[in-house]
């Protein structure tokens, strides 16, 4: 029954995109040092360091700014939802 209710909620454009960005980039921030030491996948922080030729702390600040910007967009869209939509969408947002 819940699946049908969730399917009827129309999320604002790019809402899930911004939730995904937050989850991905927060994961990169927390795990970047350990993953680089193990030689694992390229992370957003390391990619930005190499692409822009900046220090890691500058890259971390940039990634943090993207996370904060995504939160602002999520909050803006969330505040424009109806009460019934907010209850359902809140579950998605809490994942971030």
Structurally, the number of domains stands at: 1
Provide the low-confidence segments as ranges: 1-6
What's the helical proportion of residues? over 70%
- Calculate the terminal CA-CA distance, rounded to whole Å: 24 Å
Radius of gyration: 16 Å
Number of helices: 5
Mean pLDDT: 80
Q: What is the overall silhouette?
A: elongated
**Which strand-content bin applies to the residues?**
under 5%
| Main beta sheet strand tally, sense and closure | none
Give me the count of strands: 0
Order of helices and strands: HHHHH
Secondary structural class: mainly alpha
What's a quick, concise take on this entry?
This protein has 96 residues and is mostly helical. It has five helices and no strands.
Give an account of the 3D structure.
Residues 14-73 form the Terpene synthase metal-binding domain. This is Terpene synthase metal-binding domain-containing protein. InterPro entries: Isoprenoid_synthase_dom_sf, Terpene_synthase_metal-bd. It comes from Solanum lycopersicum (Tomato). GO terms for molecular function: magnesium ion binding; terpene synthase activity. By secondary structure, the protein is mainly alpha-helical. The chain has one domain (11-87). The protein is 79% helix and 0% strand. The chain starts with a helix and ends with a helix.
């Amino acid at each position: 029954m819940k699946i049908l209710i969730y399917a009827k909620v129309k999320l604002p454009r790019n809402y899930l995109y911004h939730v995904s960005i937050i989850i991905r980039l927060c994961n990169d921030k927390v795990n970047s040092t350990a993953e680089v030491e193990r030689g694992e996948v390229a992370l957003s922080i390391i990619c930005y360091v190499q692409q822009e030729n900046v220090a890691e702390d500058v890259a971390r600040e940039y990634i943090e700014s993207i996370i904060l910007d995504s939160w602002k967009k999520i909050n803006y869209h969330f505040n424009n939802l109806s009460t019934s939509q907010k209850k359902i969408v809140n579950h998605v947002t809490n994942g971030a």
